[in-house]
Amino acid sequence: MTAQVHVPSLLTRAGTATVLTLAAVGGSVIAPGAVAEAQAAAHSAKALNVAASKKGSPYRYGATGPHRFDCSGLTMYAFKKVGKKLPRTAQQQYNKTRHISASQRRRGDLVFFHWGRSVYHVGIYAGRGRIWHSPKSGAVVRLERIWTRGVWYGRVR
Predict the structure, then answer these.
(1) Is the pTM of this model over 0.85?
(2) Are 129 and 74 spatial neighbours (Cβ–Cβ below 8 Å)?
């Protein structure tokens, strides 16, 4: 048995359809890149939840989880859990992300702390000027306000 599909007559006569033709006959049109952006947003939101679930985990230099983390180890771990690969260090992660402005930031984007051109710390943006991060020796993974204007933002692709 062969399934029959109803195709608007305009499409049958043309043989192929452009995006504008599909829109004219009631088809859906998605802007280029919109699907990729939506998927990135979903991954970022999930990675944010993974980082938050590690609240209270102790800082350890060079640690990548699952029980201890340094700053880039936490971000790498969180994104790995949602199927995204990040490099090991904060600077390498900055180099790998799509750089965005503060006005474009959204929950799940990475926040990079820098001095001059060098990135020295990274966290995951939680909204309302706060990040989840593993700050320093003797501290634990926690939610904290961004304490400086010396930050850049990056979106994991």
Answers:
(1) no
(2) no
